[in-house]
Design goal:
alpha/beta, Rossmann fold, two-stranded antiparallel ribbon, globular, disordered C terminus, binds zinc ion
Length: 246
């Protein structure tokens, strides 16, 4: 109800995606590579190293990747409504759905929720004020609500242009030295779970992972990247099923 009012006031045309809608559910976990987050077809991820052929030669900054789907269709509308129309209820709902996925992964790896922390990908203060929402913080609160994992905003960011305004090849440089650590106690987590809306080039997640790795030092803690959506690389299996339905 509140969400509907909020939606009407904001004039968004997107419906609230809850993950229980009959026409939208997050894609199954095995539709994407658990290492890099790219969409994969059946059997493309090796059970030995958990990698697909695309990321096997890459050095990844994180240990595990979780996503709800491709950045397309209703999911893209919902992310845009959260980010550009400050639709908090939508951000919370997407976060809650992502939280269930995070919880599944923690359970699968025998890590209790209290032994993990959530870290929202930070946004520069000025931009947050201009936009009226810190979307990754809103998502992270949703993730916390369903996963029970503690939220520790241990990163902050200064300056730099919004990544979407920078050509992909320059995004890493745009971020260099812009992600900093805040003086907070993180304890000794077994998993640090980054939360963001969309992965495009991965430059932001790499910069954040690098900063966190520096704090973890010799610890065996894993860094996970969790996002609502990953920008268009093909999800062959989904595409095949859609064409089979048609
Ligand atoms: Zn991969």
């Amino acid at each position: 109800m509140l969400a509907q009012i909020e939606s009407a006031l904001l004039g968004t045309r997107a419906r609230l995606l809850t993950g229980r809608d009959s026409r939208w559910v997050p894609e199954p976990a095995d539709f994407s590579c658990p290492s890099c987050g790219r969409g994969v077809g059946e059997g493309e991820v090796s059970p030995e190293d958990g990698r697909c052929s695309s990321c096997r030669p890459e050095k990844l900054a994180w240990d595990r990747f979780i996503r709800l789907g491709d950045f397309a269709g209703q999911l893209r509308e919902a992310v845009h409504a959260t980010k550009y129309e400050s639709w908090r209820a939508q951000g919370m709902q997407l976060g809650r759905v992502l939280g269930y996925r995070v919880l599944d992964e923690l359970r699968a790896r025998g890590i209790p929720p209290e032994a993990a922390i959530l870290v929202p990908v930070p946004m520069p203060t000025l931009r947050r004020l201009g936009r009226g929402i810190d979307h990754s913080m809103v998502l992270a609160r949703g993730v916390r609500a369903t996963s029970g994992v503690r939220l520790v905003p241990m990163l902050r960011r200064s300056g730099g242009k919004p990544q979407v305004e920078v050509v992909p090849s320059l995004r890493a440089a745009n971020l260099r030295n812009k992600v900093r650590l805040r003086q907070v106690s993180i304890g000794s987590p077994q998993a640090v779970v980054l939360v963001d809306d969309v992965k495009t080039t991965g430059a932001t997640l790499r910069a954040c992972s690098g900063a966190i790795r520096g704090v973890l030092g010799e610890s065996k803690a894993e860094i996970w990247a969790s996002v609502v959506a990953v920008t268009a690389e093909r999800n062959r299996r989904a595409r095949r099923e859609i064409s089979a339905e048609a």
